[in-house]
Structure formats: C-alpha cells, structure tokens
Write a structure and sequence with these properties.
single chain; alpha/beta
Amino acid sequence: MALTPVLRRLHGRRVVLASASPRRRDILGYTGLRFEVVPSRFPETLDPATFATPHAYARENARRKALEVALRLREKDQRTPDVVIGADTVVAVAGLILEKPRDKEDAMRMLRRLSGREHSVITAVAIVLFPPTPPSDPDDPRDPGAPPPDPEVTSFHEETRVTFSALTDELLRDYVDSGEPMDKAGGYALQALGAMLVERAEGDFLGAVGFPLNRFCRELQGMLGATPDPAATPDPAATSSSASP
C-alpha cells in the first residue's frame, strides 16, 4: 500500500492518540502502528456560534484536545511524545451543529431533524509533531534547562454527506432505546445499527465513523517530508568499485 511507508517511519517513536473513542483506536490500529491512548482533558466548552463554519469549530476542538495531551505529557513524563493525534466529530444540518445528545429525548430531537434530509458528518484531526531531541553536547553553550522547542501543529477535516430515509418515530424510538446514540455525534453510528437509518453516504466512510485514515496518512507524510527512496540511495560498495583504477 502506498501510504504505509510514512507509518513505518513512526516505528520506535512515541505516538499518542488523545481520544477515548474506541472507534478511533480501532481505525488507527488497522495500520499496525503502536500507540498509546491518553484521553484529552480539554473540557470542550467552545461556543459553536463563535465560529464561521462547523469545520472551523471541529478543527479547533481537535487542536485543543491534541495540545492539551501533548503539553501535559511533556511536563509530566521524562520522555516527550513524538506525535500526538487529536480528533473531533460533529454533525451539521442546515448550519446547525449536532454533537452528542444529552439524553434520550435530545437524541430523538436530533434524529427527527435528520430524518429524510441530507447532512454533513465532519471529522477534524489535529497532529502535534515534536521535533527530534538532539543528543546532549557538553560543549553546547545553550542553557540545558531551556524549554524544548514548540511542536509543529497541523489540522484538517473531512466531510461526508449522509442522507437519511424518512423515518417513523417508532423506528427512531427503538433505535434510541438501543442506547447506541448516546455517545455519538448527531445521535447515530454509521458503522453499526445506525446504518439502517441511512439511505446513502458520499465521502470518506472512516471519516464519518470518526477518523479519516487515508487523509491522516497523507497529512502526516507532508509533515514528515518525503520518504527516502531506497533505489535512489547509492550503494557504497558500487561507488568504491567504480572509483578504483
């Protein structure tokens, strides 16, 4: 697969997923990458009304989640993480942002609003990349107690367009009573029972589930730089041989 070389470059590095979501953990785990799960303590109290778009709101939530964990671990642990990943998913319909329902009645209100309509599922991801720590040099005049350099932070989002069938209250009540909507943005899970509500979806399926893996790999590649091509590396033995008289 074309995207796996960038993931191999993270082997041996400390990678942290700043999310308690089992869906994000499972999707990132598909890659075979070894990572820690450290849920963010960011309180998510941002006011959606202060953001120009749902995308901007989700991206700022993802950025703050990732930075909270990154800076907390840098202060707490002797080993600074190399990469911290944060994410946030929202559902938006007609400009209104739907997050996780507060209770069953809130879930019913959300699902009634989505019934028979198209809406957007937006997942934003933030990647915090700490620069490599250089080996200590006793002759380096810089203060050894100086704080490490600030990390590089990038964020992006993927939008999936989802259309619900026209749904009866009886069906919606049965779905809400299943308990599935209660920890899901918009009150449903596209990858589980909630799929029965969906007539069609266009876009990144894993993004709608909670983590756009393809885009994540591409963005990470851009942060880490081009993957070295082994075929372009000269063979020292061949160079030595060709230089011999």
